[in-house]
Amino acid sequence: MTNTSEAPSADVLMEVKGLKKHFQVKKGYFKKEISNVKAVDGVDVTIYEGETLGIVGESGCGKSTTGEMLLGLMKPTEGSVTFMGKDLTAMNKKELREMRKDIQVIFQDPFASLNPRMTVEELIGEPLKIHTSKTKKEIRNEVVELLEVVGLNQEQLKRYPHEFSGGQRQRIGIARALALKPKLIICDEPVSALDVSIQAQILNLLKKLQREFNLTLVFIAHGLPAVRNISDRIAVMYLGKIVEITDRDQLFAGALHPYTEALLKSIPVDHPSLRSNYQPLEGDLPNPANPPSGCAFHTRCPFAQEICREKAPSLEEHRENHHAACHYPLYK
Amino acid sequence: MSEPLLEIEDLRVRFRSDEGVVSPVNGVSFQVHEGETVAVVGESGSGKSMTSLSILGLVPAPGEVYDGSIRLQGEDLTKMKRSQMRKLRGNEISMIFQEPMTSLNPVFTIGNQMIEVIRLHQKLDKTESIQQAVTMLDLVGIPEPERVLKQFPHQLSGGMRQRVMIAMALSCNPKLLIADEPTTALDVTIQAQILNLMKELKDELNTGVILITHDLGVVAEVADRVVVMYGGEVVEEATVDEIFNHPVHPYTKGLLASVPKMTGPVEELGAIKGSVPTPSEMPTGCKFHPRCPIATDLCKQVHPQLEETTPQHFKRCFHTEGGVKHDEHERSTIS
């Protein structure tokens, strides 16, 4: 019943090539540039129509910055994002605005992402008001329809965000993202701020909507269990780079990158009978302003060799549809 | 089993305001033994954090503990004077908070803050307390403890700060440690380090631990016993294996089903409908009935009691394994 691996022959919706975002840190009277934070440092990924691509990683790995660039909200330092044949990074404001009908976003914090002075009707109707020439009445009818789609009802039209619980607010955010019938929705940590029982409701809702509206989702999160639940393919990021990308089941069955394996083993177990004596990774995430030489993971990697300290590995296909950036991938 | 270290009985907390009285904790009872980790599980608004604040005597005004008892090795904490409680906190009972960034004072060095705790509670001079601080930092796996003592909180990473919090909490060798969502703010690989550390320390120091969390994965990883809370009450309590193998209460079952799994086939999650009611709009009868898939008229009217189903397994529900067995008995005991 689950569509595990999206056929690679499916239509390409978005093509990301050599995407980089470097932030300059300036200090002092003359604003001397002292360092360069490489938040995203060379991301290549292809997003196929109808799939859910999960992007996981710990804080500072650049997953949210990547998401913002895919949305066209942030100009990359280098690289291109091609959406339906057009390069987002070369668009002017007007073109970008037009394009946003097709790429929408769901944010993490449903408490901060909705304007507290707007009613539900205004919030969900706003994209329709801006992008279409529909009348007030038509917009209201559509908003009512959208509310029902996300599991809310007509009586809540005139209410304000503070009258809703976190889960309901996230539903409003989803309805807003759906309003223009986009092709792609970037979900940036959409369930992280929610209670467990509400997380499940939202994950189920996203899956249902994806089937109904034939949506393509990019699901950015740090929680691997949620990512596993919703994604067809998963990309693992570490310090601004994708270190591994493959089908969900393949990733869980045989991770190639030592970081992915450490990440998988760090997740608390599903059941007390699965407790193990796994010794977690030592050390902290390196500072992206001062990343280690060679492979960024070598400082924490149990298998690091001389070459890992000197040369950064590139993302290569080690198995069919299974890419990893590692000099010594784990073959099992 | 031996005398429990901590015994909470029928604890009730209330907040009075112009709009009326709300009770975030409503008759909570459980015990913690030495060297045991008891996980208190529940979603926001279940009363789990308020329960832990009550143990420390830190319920914020206008809240108050108005009924029940909290006995630490036989002594009732609710009857203690403020000065007595102050001696106890940080000494016999310690707490680790969720956010290591905000629970350390940013204008004092780690050393200042750790030594303050140690000197306040133990009869050690300055050199001895520095020595004790170094030992504790070493114990929680901080490299170069002498250097870290001279640093300020902002110079440390989140994981390191949480280690400092744990070192500080353990520095007076407390009998009871309350950890309120100790790993929620941390990255996964750092969370694994901290959970590992907590397991090791518990074995080494034989501290009783109350672990407050909403993450069932963390529970599966470190807990010995589990107390599931909903709407300010305990709805189920059992050993960690029992909870995961034979959950009885529909809320516990729902929680377990709603957690995405890391193993096995990927399935639709069993979500619980609706959301946790606020204390001011608590329903009558069983507090879970509006969200419960098996609720009957009885559940809407009568408030179920916590009862033992099998030895050491307690539940607050009229329906065990789907059948209505105890309603007559329950009804008579309640009214």
**Main beta sheet of chain A: strand number and arrangement?**
8 strands, mixed
CATH superfamily of the largest domain in chain B: P-loop containing nucleotide triphosphate hydrolases
Helix content of chain B: 25-40%
- Which whole number gives the mean pLDDT of chain A? 89
The strand line-up of the biggest sheet of chain B is 6-7-8-3-9-10-12-11
Tally of helical segments of chain B: 12
Strands across the major sheet of chain A, in which order? 6-7-8-3-9-10-12-11
What Rg of chain A do the Cα atoms give?
Answer: 21 Å
Helix and strand topology:
The complex is a heterodimer of chains A (332) and B (335).
Chain A: E1 12-27, E2 32-48, E3 52-56, H1 63-70, E4 78-83, E5 86-87, H2 93-99, E6 103-106, H3 120-131, H4 136-149, H5 166-178, E7 184-188, H6 196-213, E8 216-221, H7 224-230, E9 233-238, E10 241-247, H8 248-253, H9 258-266, H10 306-310, E11 316-319, E12 322-324
Parallel strand pairs in A: 3-8, 3-9, 6-7, 7-8
Antiparallel strand pairs in A: 1-2, 1-4, 4-5, 9-10, 10-12, 11-12
Chain B: E1 6-17, E2 20-32, E3 37-41, H1 48-55, E4 63-72, E5 75-76, H2 82-88, E6 93-96, H3 110-121, H4 126-139, H5 145-149, H6 158-170, E7 176-180, H7 188-205, E8 208-213, H8 216-222, E9 225-230, E10 233-239, H9 240-245, H10 250-258, H11 297-301, E11 307-310, E12 313-315, E13 319-320, E14 323-324, H12 327-334
Parallel strand pairs in B: 3-8, 3-9, 6-7, 7-8
Antiparallel strand pairs in B: 1-2, 1-4, 4-5, 9-10, 10-12, 11-12, 13-14
Helix pairs in contact in B: 3-4, 4-6
Write structural notes for this entry.
- The complex is a heterodimer of chains A (332) and B (335).
- With 332 residues, chain A is of the alpha/beta class.
- Chain A contains ten helices and twelve strands.
- In chain A, a hairpin with a 2-residue loop joins strand 4 and strand 5 (86-87).
- Chain A has a domain at 12-50 and 58-92 and 227-324: Rossmann fold.
- Chain A has helices at 63-70, 93-99, 120-131, 136-149, 166-178, 196-213, 224-230, 248-253, 258-266, 306-310, and strands spanning 12-27, 32-48, 52-56, 78-83, 86-87, 103-106, 184-188, 216-221, 233-238, 241-247, 316-319, 322-324.
- The two termini of chain A are 28 Å apart.
- Helices cover 30% and strands 24% of the residues of chain A.
- Chain B is of the alpha/beta class.
- Chain B has two domains: 6-92 and 172-261 and 268-334, P-loop containing nucleotide triphosphate hydrolases (Rossmann fold), CATH 3.40.50; 104-171, no CATH class.
- Helix content of chain B is 33%, strand content 24%.
- Chain B has helices at 48-55, 82-88, 110-121, 126-139, 145-149, 158-170, 188-205, 216-222, 240-245, 250-258, 297-301, 327-334, and strands spanning 6-17, 20-32, 37-41, 63-72, 75-76, 93-96, 176-180, 208-213, 225-230, 233-239, 307-310, 313-315, 319-320, 323-324.
- Chains A and B meet through helix 5, helix 6, helix 7 and helix 9 of A and helix 7, helix 8, helix 9 and helix 10 of B.
